[in-house]
Structures are given as structure tokens and as C-alpha cells.
Amino acid sequence: MSTALAKALQECKFQEKELQQLQETHRLYLQKLEEVSKLQKSFAASIARQKKNLKENLKGLIKFNKGLTEEEKNEVKEAKDHIQNMQSLIFQMEAFLPKKNGIYLNLVLGSMNVNLPSKETEFTQVCLTHFPSHHISCLSLLCVCRVVDALLNFLLVWYYCTLTIRESILISNGSRIKGWWVFHHYISTFLSGVMLTWPDGETYQSFRNQFLAYCLYQSFVQYLQYYYQSGCLYRLKALGERHNLDLTVEGFQSWMWRGLTFLLPFLFLGHVIAITFLFLFLFLQVSMCGFCFLVLFVGNFFTTLAVVRHKRKNQQKTKSL
Q: Three-state DSSP class for 34?
């Protein structure tokens, strides 16, 4: 027998042994899956029971608001705070259980389970919520071609559609995304669709350069905002003060103010540019775009003001302590 043939036969025997090990691993994998499924059902039932009991306990404590001594009031308040802390912990644990999809996810994905099983998967999904569209904006400004413009708007429609799906998945897994930002992305999807169907002509060409310049500026601001938010979240998650699936910073630390004061002028300038599009033209597509930009301006502007006001309050409270 030649050396090459002997080596080939030996390799076959080795592969056969590996296959047997693989089959054993597969059997063990299926067994663990079944165990996880049973544990998941048991855990879900325990969570539901605990939530119900805590809710009833909280209702029971609320009934004792009147006719209590000062000491009893303090005890009731401490008990309420303790129950609320337990409810918060249960909410975090519940995020790892499968949930029923909302209306939007049911329409898009059906009854598919969108539970993210591991922290690594969660982090990957969070990172995918950012998409740089500035390359297409630059190309559109340099190349005066309706096809390139259509490509930009098509990519924006695709991006915002997928973004709303990803955000819905994150919300189903316990992410605390502000309702305005989700609504903002639905409006942006509609706006990009209107821009995509806008026929070429004098009106479109007169609006085009301003809109593309705005897209480019918006991409720049989004990058600044992304680096500010991700930097803050990285620190807070490392300190254990934020949930794995949080996308924005709701609280405030004194070290955040320096980055925010740099970011705010760019944000407000972007809001002002958005509102100017409302008054440019009176044609159908532009009127619809103008209305969308009005909604985006109002939402973005007042949300930014509310965030600044909230952070200033927290900063003053921290200084007073």
C-alpha cells in the first residue's frame, strides 16, 4: 500500500471519529435546548406571578395613605420604593424572555421570535442602528444626475425602514428608546419616499442642492451625536448604570456637559435648516416634504430643549448636594 493511500485512509478514520463526536455534541445540544425551553416557560410563569403579586401589594399600600402616623408614612414610602425597585429588576430580567411582537413587527416579520439571547447579540444589534449616508450625499452633490439622487433617496427609504424594524426589535427586548425618535424615523421614511417619487424638473432642481447640502450637514451632525452618545453610554454601561440595549443617555453626569455644549449649536442649526424647507415651494411633493420637515423640526427642537432643561436641572441638583 502506498504512503498516500495509507494517509488518505487514516484521514477517513479520523473524520469518522470526529463525526461521532459531532453527533454526540448535537445530541447534547438538542437536550440543552429542551432544558432551556422548559426553564424558559417556568421562568416566564414565575415572572408573571411575581409581577401580579407586586402590583397587588402596591395597590394595597396605596389604600393606607390616610390616617397614618409620620413613622408609618415613612415605612409605607420605603415599601413602595422597594416594590418599584423590584419591578425595575423584574423588567430587566423579563427582557431576556420572548415577547409577543407588536403590530408593526407582526406585519413585517409575522410571529417570529425576535428575542436576543446574549449580550453580544444585543450589542451587535445596537451598533447596527447607525448607517453613514454621507457618502451618497457627497456623490449626489458632485454628480448632477437624477439616477444618483434616486439612489440616495432609495437608500434612505431602505435605511429608515430597516431602522424602524431594528428599533422595534430592541424595544421588544427591553430597550428604552424615546417614542419621539421612533416616530421621527417613520416620518423620515415617508419623507424619503416622497423625495424618491418626485419627478425631475425645474422645481426639483431648484430644491435639490439645498436638500443635498442639508443631508450632508445632517450626516455630519449625526456622526457628532453618535460619538457623544456612544462615549457616554460606554462609560455608564461600564459602571453598570445603563441597560445593555439603551441607545441614548437619559440621565446626566457632570462630565457630559462639556461634550453636549459643543454638540448643541450644530443640533439647533440643523433644526433651523429643516424648518426653512417648509417655506420654499408650494408644489405637491414640496408641500408634503415641507409638512414632514415641520413635524421633524417641532419634535427635534422641543425634544432637544427638554433634554437640555432636564440635564441643567440634574446638574444644579448635583451641585447643591
A: helix
H helix or E strand, kind and range, residue 232: helix 202-238
Contact (Cβ atoms closer than 8 angstroms) between residue 58 and residue 33 = no
Concatenated DSSP letters of 140-206: HHHS--HHHHHHHHHHHHHHHHHHHHHHHHHHHTT----HHHHHHHHHHHHHHHHHHTPPPSHHHHH
Helix (H, G, I), strand (E, B) or coil at 208: helix
Q: Where are the domains of the chain?
A: 16-94, 116-320
Higher pLDDT residue, 23 or 3?
23
Lowest mean pLDDT among 96-110, 132-146, 242-256: 242-256
CA-to-CA distance for 198 and 206, rounded, in angstroms? 13
Instruction: Identify the CA nearest to 172 among candidates 106, 227, 240, 86.
Output: 106
pTM: 0.59
Q: How far lies 37's CA from each of 42, 45, 49, 91, in Å?
A: 9, 12, 19, 20
Instruction: Extract the C-alpha cell encoding 217.
Output: 450637514
57, 81 contact by CB (below 8 A): no
pLDDT (tens digit per residue) in 171-208 = 777 677 777 778 888 888 888 888 888 777 777 777 77
pLDDT for 30 beyond 80: yes
